[in-house]
Every structure is written in structure tokens, then in C-alpha cells.
């Protein structure tokens, strides 16, 4: 029985290492677009999807961590429309319902929106995109 605590400690250590490895692989897979819904792939043209949250070199704000973030508030991006900035100033956040409505028709949701993307018409595809955006968090 005296060997049991050592085995248990090794098992916990192994679990900790695997957790770190899989978390790192998950972030890398998200940033690389693996397992990304087809409906969200077009976003990569204008938005950074990595945890680095880059704005330089992109015409849209980074999308990592967008879930439950105040609308129009990503500090590294200065190109938000007045409509989106106003929504955020009035306490609106990118929750699931708001993202779903925005991705359905960005210009209808936020008149004056600068995003050229016209939206995701298919509800199932739109919800997959929202789910994926919610998975992109630290």
C-alpha cells in the first residue's frame, strides 16, 4: 500500500501535463482554422482568430475572446463604426444571441457597419460559427 501515494502523484502529474498539452494544441488548432466551421472561414480574410489578438495587417478587429466582450471595445482596433461603439457604450455585449443576430445580417443589426460581409443566412451554420467564436477564449 505504500506505493499507492507515489502512483497517485504520478497520475496527477500526468493529468496536469496532458491538460497543458491539449490546451496548447486546442489553441493552435483554433488559430490554424482546424475544426473551424465553413461559415467562419471567410472571417480569416479580415480578422485575426489567434490568441495573439492582432489588428495590424487586418481590416477588422481580432475575434479571439469576442464572446461576452463589450461591443466595439477591442482596444487594439480603432476602425469600429459609430453604431458599434455606441452599442458598447450603452452596455451591449457580444453574447450568443447578439452574435447570432449580427452574423445573420451585420448591416441590419448595426446600420453604418463597415463590415463588407453580408451575413450567414443558414441558421445551423450561423450557430456553428457562434459556438466556435465562444470556444475562442483563454
Automatic annotation (TrEMBL):
Keywords in alphabetical order: Electron transport, Heme, Iron, Metal-binding, Transport
GO molecular function, one term: electron transfer activity
Organism (species): Magnetococcus marinus (strain ATCC BAA-1437 / JCM 17883 / MC-1)
Start and end residues of each Cytochrome c domain: 28-137
SUPFAM superfamilies per record: Cytochrome c (SSF46626)
The protein, known as: Cytochrome c, class I
